[in-house]
Amino acid sequence: MPMIQDLVAGPNVRDDDEGLFSRDIDGQLVRLDAPTESDYTKEVTLQIDGQEVTVPLAVPLADANGNIVVDIEGRTTPRYITILDAAQKLYVKEFGDEQKIPIPVLCHQSHMTPVAVCRMCVVQIYGQKRGKRAAERKLLPACQHPVKNGMEVFTMKAEGRDGDKVRQTVRVMTEFLAADHLKPVEDPELSREITPFNELGQLTERVGADATRYQLDVFTQPLNPPPEPKPLAGRRKLDASSPVFLVDHSACILCERCIRACDDVQENHVIGRTGKGANAGIGFDLNDAMGKSSCVKCGECMVSCPTSAITFKPVGQIKLKSEDRSATIVPASELLTDPVFAGVPPKFLLWQKGLVIKRKTSKGQVLCRQGDAGNTAFIIKRGRLEVAVYRQPKDSEGVFGKLFSGRGKLIFRDELAPEAVLVGEMACLTGTPRSANVTALEEGEVWEVRRNVLDRLMRLPAQRARFEKEYRRRSLDLVLQSTELFKEMTEGEYKPILDKLRERLTFVRVKPGQTVFEQDDKVNDLYLVRLGHVRISVFRHGAEAKVLSAGPGAIIGEVGLLAFSQADAHRPVDEVDRGLVAALDSMQGNYANYPAGTRSATVSALGHLELARLSREDFLQLVHQFPVLRRRLVEQSLARLRSDTKTQRFLDEFVNQGLYEGRSILTLDTDLCTRCDECTKACVQQHGTESHGLPITRMLRDGLRFDHYLIATACRSCVDPHCMFGCPVDSIHRGKHLQIVIEDHCIGCGLCAENCPYGNIFMVPNEKGRIAMPDPDIPNKTHLVARPKAVTCDLCDAEGERETPKPRCVAACPHDAAHRMTGEELLVKVLEKNQRKAKPWQA
């Protein structure tokens, strides 16, 4: 029996080089091992159409938003660089150069895992086999095939026999697909907009394909047409059951981009393949109609579809306010030609009309103010802007103190030109208040973009790199100054520390519920909470004795890094500080020898969490180098150790109910409440039928109990608004008082209601926005359907017309039982009441 190495190329020899196996220099079949982090430093040089390009052998895996995937220890997941990656490096020098890549793709996008099913990206590869230059026996997909040193690649741009082979192959495959699946959209007006951006149609023109050669009517007589084929089990023809999208199964090329968009990007797991062979197609759930499936209408599948198989219906368009005369909607035609939006799917820009607003700015005009709701970001097109941050007056200064202190002391200022591209992106992405004033220094123009547009821009690798660079330059200063550790430092004290930190901090993203570290673990890093909240649990005698929560700006891990213990809790600060200085001096710069402490608590993510991480050695070096930082750390660490000697029995319940993140919690004092339900009646009367065409309430007099308070089912205006993330049309945002406001272009997907962990958003049929839908009982007939629209409490001031909100539910209570308060205020009231009962109160 011949050995593998004795086989030669022939019709009976299989070539499976593109999967788990490959061939070495002698032609032997070898297993392709998974890449490792050490491969990041290895470089590979190859030629593409005669041009040499050098790329790393592997790079870290990134998610759909361009974030590098890391575990909590900071380890990345390596992936091999592919031929398509190398071509992108060779041809893409600036925004908009993606069209220059001579490798067409239909089934792949940069943020997706390649599956190589369309075969449009095939290339001819030459390598070394048995010590000689030899061509691969078949064309291989560039989107999936890893690079190798000395590899020669010929694309459809290449001249000569190899280029002709690739061009002819791609042309024939394109003609096959176009003959069966290149079809216009049902709606003529919509078809005129979408057809120029049909990727299959664009590829047909690009390669000069003639789809009519394979159409069935060419081979039949006009008077003797072929019989109508039976419906395929795995496909439907036209599915108009969704109120938002239209599915034409006959235009589907089975590229699976919609499946990966639904599964990998959005993690909804609604779409999959159904049927086999000629009956294969895409299906929703168990091959249901789209409108009857569990589809959440996020639009990711429609945006990812390269043909007219999934398109949108013209619903939910954004309208400008009539009084906003300085703003105009930027048309999709202009966005599609703008270099900033190069790479954003055209379908998304056509669907989301009104999400980009053009504003002319005059000198001195304030675009946004510190502390305001931040629902949009600004792309600087012309002119210079000033970013200024002022110290916020303390509550202890009182009303007159805040009034006469003005804007407070200037602590940060920067000028931005169009080269900076973007400003206001952090508030837009996180739903947090603006952290700075942005003022126009001269006449200019800005484009105001919403969150879902910014999310799309962040997915573009080139744009994201620019945004992250600007974040490190500008926003990191503001993030650190908001922490207790650096607050109130003078500029002379703060700036040297910032310069050291800027180059040493790394960022870690943590999923909800994931443990950051556990109690008694060895301390290796210091963490700064940048976005989200953490749960801090202290265990004693095998039971959870104390639960705390911490939000943005919190420093975690300093006690263990300084190797403090409970024995240090009652030592004087000066004594502990002197001992720390002596210990660090004895290290003589080798901080790895400093005794390692252990974690005093278990920390886990309460929601989506982003942490800034500083290594142990870098932390100790900063502590040793900057006395003001060391002193603050000692004071805060000892204060934390002293607080750990007390337990509070309400904190566990406080954290479990999510009260820690509430800005405006509707509480009903059960000692005073008579269940008259005047609060609910007032809510219905206040809002009437204006939003949905029928009277509905924004609250329910029911919910969880916290001590003697009933936490009513009403929006809490969370610090981190879970409901706002993922809205496909960005119809939910913060209002003037940081309350949640839902706009009229809501498409009723229900994602906000699903994301709200407290059940405070309701989906109600919008009788004012009825749409025509196919009648399930009568073919070719339609009937009007009230599409669902989300509704939630807006503090009775959705338009932001009042200086302070005046919720009608609170004002209507005849017994002073209803109050709006933050989570911290509620906790203080409960603790104070129980302290008065038990003197002294103990947990």
Structure explained in plain terms:
There is one protein chain. With 843 residues, the protein is α+β, with helices and mostly antiparallel strands. The protein is 25% helix and 23% strand. Strands 3, 4, 7, 8, 9 and 10 form a six-stranded mixed β-sheet that branches. Strands 16-17-24-19-22 form a five-stranded antiparallel β-sheet. A hairpin with a 2-residue loop joins β34 (700-706) and β35 (709-713). Residues 1-21, 23-27 and 395-406 have low confidence and may be disordered.
Kindly report the average pLDDT value: 81
Annotation, overall tally of beta strands = 40
Structural class, please? alpha+beta
Given as residue ranges, the uncertain stretches (5+ residues, pLDDT < 50) are 1-21, 23-27, 395-406
Computed CA radius of gyration, to the nearest angstrom: 31 Å
What is the terminal-to-terminal distance?
80 Å
Q: How many strands, which pairing sense, and closed or not: the largest β-sheet? A: 6 strands, mixed
Principal-axes shape call: globular
Question: What percentage of the residues does DSSP assign to strands (E)?
Answer: 15-25%
Helical content stands at 10-25%
Number of helices: 22
Write the layout of secondary structure elements.
Blueprint: E1 21-23, E2 29-31, E3 43-48, E4 51-56, E5 58-60, E6 78-80, H1 83-91, E7 122-129, E8 132-135, E9 140-141, E10 152-154, H2 160-181, H3 188-194, H4 199-207, E11 238-239, E12 245-248, H5 257-265, E13 271-274, E14 281-284, H6 300-304, E15 310-312, E16 327-329, H7 332-336, H8 346-351, E17 356-361, E18 366-368, E19 376-382, E20 385-390, H9 398-404, E21 410-416, E22 422-423, H10 425-430, E23 437-440, E24 444-450, H11 451-458, H12 461-481, H13 491-502, E25 506-510, E26 515-517, E27 525-531, E28 534-540, E29 543-550, E30 555-556, H14 558-561, H15 573-585, E31 602-605, E32 609-615, H16 616-625, H17 627-643, H18 651-656, E33 665-669, H19 678-687, E34 700-706, E35 709-713, E36 732-734, E37 740-742, H20 751-755, E38 762-774, E39 782-791, H21 808-811, E40 818-821, H22 823-837
Parallel strand pairs: 3-10
Antiparallel strand pairs: 1-2, 3-4, 5-6, 7-8, 7-9, 7-10, 11-12, 12-15, 13-14, 16-17, 17-24, 18-23, 19-22, 19-24, 20-21, 20-23, 25-32, 26-31, 27-30, 27-32, 28-29, 28-31, 33-35, 33-40, 34-35, 36-37, 38-39
Helix pairs in contact: 2-4, 16-17
